[in-house]
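Good day; I would like, with your permission, to put a structural problem before you. What I wish to show you is a protein chain and, alongside it, a tokenised description of its three-dimensional fold. Please examine both parts with care and let me know of anything in them that strikes you as inconsistent. Thank you for your consideration; the sequence and its tokens are set out here:

***
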Amino acid sequence: MDKYEYWSGLPEVGIVPRAPHAGPLLRHVYEQEHGRGGFAGKVTHTYHLYPPNNWLADETRALDLAAWAPAWDSPLRPLGGTHHALSVDVGGPDMAPDSPGARKRPGAAGALLGHADHDGDVYRGMARLIANATAAMNVTAPRGPMDYFFENHGATMVFFIHQGGGTLDTLLGPLEYRKGDFLVIPKGITHRFDPAAGPQHYWMYESGAGDPQKAESPSTGRFITHSESDYRFPRSLETRNEAGRFEIFSKVGATVTRRVHPTHPFDVIGWRGDYLPYRLAVEDVRPLSADRSHVPPSGHTVFTLPGCYLCVFTVRSVEKDAMWLPFFHRNLDYCETLAYHWGDFFSGGGVVGPGMVTVHPVGLPHGPKPAALRKFMDGANPGVHHEVAVMADFANPAMISDHALGLSRPDYMAAWSAYTTDSRFTFDPNRLADVRALGERLGDARDSLAPPD
């Protein structure tokens, strides 16, 4: 061994040969390559006690996803020109009872899942909400562990743990997770969720055309909105030398295939590579903020996916010399979803709460609720935004599922109704003259934080 060892090459854990596809160790263990891009992209090699293809051929079955996980393949409909608020909370607070658009939420996991005849695990209880050609948003509320292993052969999955925690057991080692974590599970990686006791509620984003990429700006460097050093990869192996009947279910589109192996799939004694599952804690997201300008939603991007980008609104300072609410906007290329995790969302005006998901389709104006805009107009700057929410914007055309429509609050469009009833916002015959006078007086006002004249 050299006197000094330097960090170089690819990560590795356990027993591996000196180089892939080479060396005498390969006459005693079985190498498996997990490769992307026709083996020209990211790759990981795993080294097994037994051949990975040792399935029992006469027990392989192709299943219909609609029967195996009924809500995951919920039919899709055009969104149209209507905003939606989805009551998919699990034990979380409801919309304020006197808020416009409020109604009693469907109770807990049964209403979220929309069916009661599944096994209650992460995947058989998965429900699709929004999708376009390359990406989708789903929700699940697992009530127990998985008695099988799972591989998504059609997409990489990005989970956000809204409630609960546990262990993600993977072919490459375990990852502990808790509330507020992102879990990235690459396409095809064998894994199994083992949730801890207590309520569980996860949002899951599928990316069918590529893996999530860390969002970076050429002007801000590698450490905003987070650093790749914040990613937590498997660091240990729990090699299983076990015989039995081990079921693996794999999904491609609307088809699920079941196969059975006589040895445990986690018989890995070592691995080397960079195609890995990992965890990112939301507390490690370091938001971009500015005193003199409102940072647009895209400035909060954490991951970019083909046809979708994921943003995190988290605890941050409020703008001092700028509008600290989102401007009224019409996103003409993306359908905007917001999943509310914690706190009082700065533009929600008490209408939305933790566990809910709002869906704002392309072209339809949206922006702050009236109560939030009143606070801004009255100068009630809170100093700090105490909130966490995950925004996923889906490239047009995006569609909404029947399952999601069944959870939609029918009066959510009324959440902005005060703009037609509050005298501060309604028609005033003197409004034009008043604004012209204000323009003369305030149009050239300087920022309080600007350099001196």
